[in-house]
Amino acid sequence: MIPQEVYERTLRGFLGPVGTLLDDESVTEVLVNGANRIFVERRGRLCETELRFDSPERLVSALRVVAQFVDRPFDEQHPILEARLPDGSRVEALMPPVAPDGHSVAIRRFSKERLSVEKLLEFGALTADALATLGALIECKQNIVVAGGTGSGKTSLLNALSALIPAEERVIVIEDSRELQLQREHVVQFETRPPDARGRGGVTVRDLFKASLRMRPDRIVLGEIRGGEALDLVQAMTSGHGGCLATVHATYPIDTVHRLETLALMSGVELPLFALRSQLASAVDIIVQTARLREGRRVVTHISEVLGVDPREGYRIRDLFVRHHAAKNSGVPELNPTGELPSSIGLLRSHGLELPESVLEKARTRGIRADAEGSQ
């Protein structure tokens, strides 16, 4: 593996036109569709630039340098590359024949300034009441899944929410490619490794997850659930490892639990479907749903609780906060409490925590007693 400082200088030269875009704080994503077409995303909107690579070979050379630095193969036998740049930007690249029109690259750029919970409030992604509720749920070790579509801000939100984890806790992070920058002191990062050309030496998310359980974690954070490791996470959540955090691709809270179910079925472990659903519904406590609005803003749309599973009706989901769509031209819809209380309210109070008064007041207007421990 080449030294990082040599790699940075070499890569900056090969990246050429892309390098200038990565220095632009307003750019969140760079998309390369072959050497002659480069697009950027700014504030959630895509536009084509006039920048070009000198030749297709120049683009290929840059990608080979990236692959060499992260020690991952990128050739006809391994035509998909997952990597990162020195600044932490995520790289996904595909080459022919799976990309018949030429090398295709997506670079997800992460701001050098960490997104804080204060910024979430400033941007309107969350309200103060929703943030306070999430803070209480995180502190009392509820298992939380952040879900959303591509580019909806899942990773950034998880980074920001990590600041709500008590400072004395040990956090283990597992990722395919390192993206998370948790705002805690005691963080241990694990990263997968693909097998070599002979199929040897590969380390999967599932391998790292199993190892992490013996590393004395107070919290386990899974960067993204994409396969059979979903079942390992569910089993860890139901066996005493509370406070887990993870992200997954899904559009609505109910889609999130179904997506997790599908991924758990990919584990190869044969379980009766209802047994799997019961475990999953018991494991996941809270779903934080994110979305990118039409104008490009990334926001939280739902904070929902998984109550369990009914043999006839399926998963039971209760919305605690919902961002209601306002009338046309009436501004961005606000994230408001529904009046429902989490079933963990008794646990919160046993930890000396309380929900915001506005949340409790909303519950009272609906005739829900705040001392009923959310069992309404």
Secondary structure: number of strands: 15
CATH architectural arrangement of the largest domain: 3-Layer(aba) Sandwich
Total number of helices: 12
Which percent range describes the beta-strand content? 15-25%
Number of domains: 2
Which topology of the largest domain does CATH recognise? Rossmann fold
Structural summary, described in words:
With 376 residues, this protein is α/β, with parallel strands linked by helices. The protein folds into 2 domains: 4-108, Beta-Lactamase; 117-365, P-loop containing nucleotide triphosphate hydrolases (Rossmann fold, 3-Layer(aba) Sandwich), CATH 3.40.50.300. Helix content is 31%, strand content 23%. The chain is built from 12 helices and 15 strands. The protein has helices spanning 4-15, 17-22, 56-69, 117-123, 128-139, 154-161, 205-212, 229-237, 253-265, 273-283, 345-350, 357-365, and strands at residues 27-33, 38-42, 45-48, 80-84, 90-94, 104-108, 144-148, 171-175, 187-191, 219-222, 245-249, 286-292, 298-310, 314-323, 335-337. It has a 9-stranded mixed β-sheet, sandwiched between helices. Strand 2 (38-42) and strand 3 form a beta hairpin. Helix 1 packs antiparallel against helix 3 and helix 8 crosses helix 10 (273-283). The radius of gyration is 22 Å and the shape is globular. The model has no long low-confidence stretch (mean pLDDT 88).
